[in-house]
Amino acid sequence: MSSAELVKLNSTMIGILCQHRSGHSAYEQNLSNTNNLEMFPELDINCKDVDLYFDQLPKNSVFSMMVSPNSFGLMQKYKNINWQIFMRKDVITQCLSFIYTNKTQIIRDNQTQIVDVDINLIDYFVDNFKIVNDIKSKNIYPVYYYEDQSMPNTVFKKNNNNYKKLIKNIDDVMEKINYLLP
């Protein structure tokens, strides 16, 4: 059963726990278009009033929640939401994409700019990755992977960026990633 079919069976309010650069925008758009759900702006660390955010969610909606230290508590508190976890199997490329796009501020399309990136962002990425994995390990919520999804109902398409060639300080970056990621 696909994730889109699962949504039709369980709920019309879908929350997607994810990290940046997971492909969640395409996944969310595909769920929205497949199930006629309103896409609601993502919940992230910049939200000043989380309870107000949840109170304003339309009944037939889909939204992404960027991982944070209180993610599991929010998922437990708002049980009326059909929560899912959306991840990438290729976590290294996701991390490289995160630190690269943070530097360039260009989040879509194929890239050509070669840049030095801030390796300290790897710590932030890995901390959030560990939170998602901890929630995943509880086996409460279904987990879907970007690489397993067919998303024909979306305008967002996977790019062909080779971040190992686009990041000047790739040796330092890979050394830190390999040290921090299991």
Report how far apart the termini are: 30 Å
Number of distinct beta strands: 5
Calculate Rg over CA atoms. 17 Å
Number of helices: 8
| Biggest sheet, spatial arrangement of strands | 2-3-1-4-5
What does this structure look like?
This protein has helices at 3-10, 24-35, 50-55, 71-77, 91-104, 121-137, 163-166, 170-180; strands spanning 13-18, 38-39, 61-66, 82-87, 143-145. By secondary structure, the chain is an alpha/beta fold. A five-stranded parallel β-sheet has the order 2-3-1-4-5, covered by helices on one side. Helix 1 (3-10) packs across helix 2. The radius of gyration is 17 Å and the shape is globular.
Keywords:
single chain, 182 residues, alpha/beta, 5-stranded parallel sheet, 5 strands
SSE order and pairing:
Elements: H1 3-10, E1 13-18, H2 24-35, E2 38-39, H3 50-55, E3 61-66, H4 71-77, E4 82-87, H5 91-104, H6 121-137, E5 143-145, H7 163-166, H8 170-180
Parallel strand pairs: 1-3, 1-4, 2-3, 4-5
Helix pairs in contact: 1-2
Provide a short characterization of the protein structure:
By secondary structure, the chain is an alpha/beta fold. It has eight helices and five strands, in the order H-E-H-E-H-E-H-E-H-H-E-H-H.
